[in-house]
Amino acid sequence: MSEEFSLQEVIDSFRLSLSDSKEIFLDQYVEGWRGLVKLLNSLGSVFGFISKDVVNKLSILVSLRGGPEGAHYLSLQSMVQYELQSGLVEGGDNPVSGTRGVSGCRTLLRLHRALRWLQLFLGGVSRDEGTPPTLCSLAYSQSLSQHHPWVIRSAAGLAFRMLPPRDPFLRMLNAGEPPQAVEVLGGAVPVLGEVYTITEELYSKHDLLNLP
Ligand code: 1Q0
């Protein structure tokens, strides 16, 4: 993956994360998120506190995947099964990964909730329903914000106001001129939606949607 953000690469990674049998592979899921971090970084230092948190969560997942129990972290489905069976899901000590008190399931749940925000936000941008700052805060209030304390909500609110207007924003996606970028965005939304829905059903089935 190149150093520069490309929306198409992000979509491709999330698309590739989906197997024929609708499993979600963790490596490609993480790769998709790495692409999003590049975009966050290119938006400027105001978004640094957000990208730091994402990077942190990705490195937890990468260390679990690269650890001795890594085979269990091939897919979200195998991760859930393994952590449930081993009593790790609530964040019991995981001496193997060095991520004490932090499970893969709870870590990924935070990214999963953020994916819903992204899906709503990108949907709004692609349909031109408002300016990026407005759509961003609307999507946030409909999704992630209910999981965040006041202090994070207000920091996020300040950051959203720094988002560029629509056309410069679309150009930052590196997906061609604005009309083309909108088309690519329109294609991204269903892919993110599918990954989101499969994860939501998996977590819901195992009662994992409120992991502390
Ligand atoms: C573009 C602006 C990005 C706005 C993202 C919305 C979320 C804002 C709030 C994030 C606060 C992050 C600070 C830390 C929060 C953690 O406490 C929280 C919970 O974790 P924990 O371990 O304390 O229980 N973490 C999270 O909730 C994770 C939040 C992840 C946010 C991921 C945002 C990903 C953004 C990607 C950039 C995409 C821009 C797309 C542009 C397309 C344009 C047309």
TrEMBL record:
Source organism per entry reads: Pogonophryne albipinna
The UniProt record lists the Glycolipid transfer protein domain at 26-174
Query: One GO cellular component from the entry?
Result: membrane
Gene3D superfamilies with a match to the protein in the record: Glycolipid transfer protein
**Which family does the similarity line name?**
Belongs to the GLTP family.
GO MF term list: ceramide 1-phosphate binding; ceramide 1-phosphate transfer activity
Superkingdom is Eukaryota
What is the official name of this protein in its record?
Answer: Glycolipid transfer protein domain-containing protein
Instruction: List, alphabetically, the InterPro entries matched.
Output: GLTP_sf (IPR036497), Glycolipid_transfer_prot_dom (IPR014830)
- Gene Ontology biological process terms in this record: negative regulation of interleukin-1 beta production
